[in-house]
Structure prediction request, 345 residues.
Amino acid sequence: METELAFTDFEDSTRETVRKAVAALQAGDVVALPTETVYGLGADALNPAAVEKIFEAKERPHFDPLIVHVGHKDAFHQIAEVPKEISKTVVQLVETFWPGPLTIVLPKKPVVPDIVTGGLETIAVRQCEHPVFHRIIKGFGGFIAAPSANIFGRISPTSAPAVMDQLEGRIPLVVDGGACGRGLESTIVRVLPGDKKPIIEILRPGPITNDDLKKFGKVVFAERNVDVEDSAPEAPGMLANHYAPNKPLRLLSSPQDFRPEEGKRYALLSYRGQPKDGYLGAYEWDEVSVLSPGSGRVAEAGIRLFHAIRQLDQNEEIDEIIAEPVPDRAVGKAILDKLRRASVK
Ligand code: TXA
Ligand code: MG
Prediction:
């Protein structure tokens, strides 16, 4: 299959690309789409045959449910139930964070095909903030199921060329909407009734942080992150590492942890490139990539993370990627989560 890369650099190209993407969605095809988090592989969420194409292109196992994107805030009521006990909080979250990188898990309505939710009784919904995505879903008029546009187990793409690297030849259309502004997948939450305050359970850390959410309830981190791509216990060893580059990546917890092997060429994925952190001078690195130069900003590091890993992965002068830890706070939690999953055990 030939994959078309469609541009949105100016208004005329954007209009034409939006038209093509809408036509593809209406025809039951899959399309890679830009979002503010990472690129998604979208299809009509209410068309099971179209959704099946997402699983095929990604080689994604069917037990892993998809996120459904809505075209406007109120549309989620058509596909999800909002239990009375949590409705006030859900409305507050939607009003505050949508459109944006927050996904909410709610009981699903029967209209949603089982293939979307992996047979679960719940559905994950969000409204995307990206202007091109917004125009496409508005033109389409329905719901777009879209997981990250990577092959199962690999790093999520944050640019159209990164999508092409993984999915060229497998899908008909990639919409190039530029680099993703957030660079990390949406935060996924579930709301539960609590004693004094509602409980907001973070099922996957992301750009909307603990601090952002705590005004709306008691924030807890789920013991089991829902990002299951690597952790299906049914098939140990059969699944690739989640967020895995092609080269080995190792997350250190201190500079002393690093024991180089003779003859191997190592790149350092540095948080802020500060010698005083101890990693920069710990070795004569063959390459150094800094996520947020200077004092270090975790949100900036998050934006660059997948892009930086991809670049080091493509560098033929490097055998292994060594990652510094980032602060375990705010968006840093999501970065550490990805680095741990990408890391060789
Ligand atoms: O930012 C994002 O969320 C991106 C863009 C494209 O929107 N999408 C994304 O999708 O990251 P994906 O498929 O890579 O991750 C979806 C995650 C999976 O880990 C899945 O387990 C979880 O959402 N999920 C989906 N439905 C769920 C449900 N009903 N209950 C719990 N987790 C669910
Ligand atoms: Mg994913």
Notes: The CA atoms of residues 34 and 259 lie 39 Å apart. The chain has two domains: 4-83+103-176, 249-342. The two ends are 36 Å apart (CA to CA). DSSP finds nine helices and 15 strands in the chain.
